[in-house]
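Support reply, case 0932

Customer input (verbatim):
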Amino acid sequence: MSGANGIVEVEFGEYPQTIASNTISQELERLYQNGRLTKTGKQYTLDSVHYDKYDTDFHPRNFDEYEYNGKKYIRFVGDYNGKGETLSDGTKVEDGKPYWIQVEDIKWLISEKENIALAKNILVAGVQFNKESNYKGDFENTTLGKYLKDVFAQDIQKVGNFTSTLIENIKRRKTKIQQLNPDTTEEEKRRKLTDTERIHNWIESGQSVLLRGPSGIGKTERIKTLYPNLIYIKLTNNMFPEKVVGSVNLQTGQSIPPDFAKQAMLTCATKEEKKLVEENIQNIYALADTIYERSKTNQEKIVILLDELLNVKPAVQSLVYTLVLNRFVEIGKGLKLPDNVVIVATGNQKKYSTVAEDLAEPLEKRFDHILDMEPKVGEWIYEYAIPNKIHPTVIGFILSYYLKNGKNEDIDKMGYFYEEPEVGENQPDKYGCNGRTNDPRGWVSISDTLYSFERDLTNGKFIGKNVEDILEVSIGTKLRTFWTREFFAFYNIPTLSVEEVVNHSYIEEDLPQDSNERFACLMTLLQANEEEIKPVREFIRKYCDKEYLETFELCWMGTEPKRIEQIMELKALESSSTVKVEDEVKKL
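Our regenerated output:
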């Protein structure tokens, strides 16, 4: 049986496990005493040494296996060591009394990823851990380690390496997913999809999505980045219903589709069809079926984004029922939207918004997927901050904390990047107002502030002014005092310039000493141009580790094809040089 958590339960091998019933035990004992029980030739081995003889080595005690009515049993006689211990049927062991235990299949819990086999039930106890007390971490050479490997593993089934054999047997039997998946990448190298990739995958499959989560983490922005030409509808409590469902001209009786529906239809229309619709909007109804059939072969998705769906009253929410379920506009004649239309909605849970409303169950069930999103540092940096050229200091500051926390995305460990609303509520400022909290949208605002400040500073706007105070106060309007000081200190760390690095005009004392200084240096070196990038990369490789270089390259390249190509060429040359050096070493 395969579990959703990646753990597989299997039956493999056998071992004495359950005490036989009184009736069976009495019959087995009678046959045993009369010499009429058949031995199978198999034995099970335990330690015979008294429990408090700590310095006495392992002494095997063998138990023969007997067969009776198609089942197998072993016999043991209770002694002083086991007196009073509880058996599987709840009875206590008595000194001198014979007992019979049935041999049964062993159930194992297997983690293929970790290569571990764990018995579901405890099978063995009483074997000493080690004869000596000077255990030095080599478990396989302890008394217990040797017993498990050389005795126990052989008792349960005659195999070479028990765990390896068991794992290999499991891997040979492919699951449904393994049978369908052509991917040959090693499992430990496969990564999980990011939220953005999940959303994109669902939309490209034509499935509707509701994104829920706190404000400022990029729900709407993510969809706009994936589909720049999306059709955007901002839902509000005072909006006119005809914006969503269309209307009917009471004088002529003609149906008037909402603007978003017309836009979606025209996206799939031919030049001639567009002309007909522009001449008379009523033609859109006559063309609807033709456009719909043609759209079935159109792979390009038309995304209609319903923003703030959870922040409007149920009466407004109800307007989109049919749109979400059938991609259909109901008013008047009714208008079926193209087949390649996908509905996406966003909103805040009640925890994050005082105006949030519960989504009516019928509407909630109309969405194919509901994704409750949380802020994620890594995704924001690599999917949003770097491509959108967020100020290098913001990226460097967040990355520095991110790596210090072991890339931990736990909400409790990422206060530097995102804080829950209650954090600000519990830390009011000196005026009694809610304290500011960090979120991705706020960091974008700080980025804009830095770019604006630096532009004004270099243009001489602040001549004669205390520029440090100007910047710190500006940052302080967005962060609490603690984070303002931390961020300002990071921004103002003295670093080497690109010119100093390229010309090697630095001494050992100028080199970055800790992670903060390295990230600050990296962000300054992003100013390098195409001619300066080679020596800059060599400097980073020499005085920072590989991860810093990879981060620098991602930030420096961004989404510029020319820069991406240049970095790829430099890496190819370095790889070629490494191979040549290795070949020369082999010759020597």
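We compared this against your earlier run and they match. Two observations from our side: DSSP finds 24 helices and 15 strands in the chain. The chain has a mean pLDDT of 88. Please reopen the case if you see a mismatch on your end.
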